[in-house]
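Handout, section B. The chain below has 161 residues.
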Amino acid sequence: MAEEIDRNKRKTLKKMLGLTGLLVAPLAFLDGCGALITMDSKSTWFRGFIYNYWQDDNGNGIVDDDSELKGEKSTFYPNERITITGAIKNRRGHELTTKVWNGVGKLIRKRTEKINSRLFGYDIEFNPGQLYKEEGGGDYIVEWYLDDNLIEKKEFRVLHR
């Protein structure tokens, strides 16, 4: 019975966070960013975000609350800044890759970084109007890979003028 409850809790947490392919321990809670924190220091999590910009509301120099990610959404106006962030825990020594595809399947951005710390993340940023000017309005896909394994995929849209 307890095992079934734990399994259901893990499924619920995964669904709430949109987690795919990640370890979720039974003793878990959410931190201020909505990231999964577990009692097992060897567990891992990944979160992908698409939003306008980060604002350090409390001046501590780190993102410690998802309210600091301004404009998290999936539809953007042509003149908006678009920031794409991947954050991962406990995968030091691996590689995190982010790929951004336009609506016709053209790879328009790719960034790969060696994970060099326990908590790791990076951004791909498009200045206001930049993505619209370069690629136009339409649908876009963001994929995040750990080494060569797809771990999360999100879509967003830039409206036509």
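Note. The longest strand covers residues 149-158. Compare this with the example in section A.
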